[in-house]
Amino acid sequence: MSATPWHYQDGTRAVGPVDEATIRQRLRDGRMPAGTLVWCDGMAAWAPVESTLFAADVPLPSATGDSASASIHAAPVNPMPAWLIACLPLGLLVLSSMPGAGLVALLGYIGLAIHDRETFRRAGRTPSNAYWWMILLGAAGAPVYLYLRARRLGDPWGYVVASVLTLLLFVAVTLLAGTYAAV
Which residues cross the membrane (predicted)? Predict the structure, then answer.
């Protein structure tokens, strides 16, 4: 190991001087993703860590783009679209007497699925094709999609449980309304 002091970018701030061992440890721990800029005396400019002597220490994502190391380095994915998907049946209860509510619901699920897919991309993550569950099955596919989403991101299952409960509530209220309308 050399005694050359190194500097690295952590977000918008430069950190250093640190030794080679610190850089290597951060790479091993997943706290320094590929693309992190590093610099030491003798370099003309800051360079991506993978183009320096640390190249062998930079974790590589798997061929599927879904490795644990790729997930560690990606930005967090905003959970808001997942919560909107989970709670959409509550909105449908309000709109259920409106003509065309089914079409509104279908468009809502499709729009939210596409928006959530783009949220993944903006966060630097590879979106899965699980969103097709929602597009093809609408409300019935939403819990499946949200389960796959939570598992992929390592998220708590709050929006998965909320999706199942709001869907059951929607079905129960719809059935009760149909029972009372028949009387």
Answer: 82-110, 130-148, 160-182
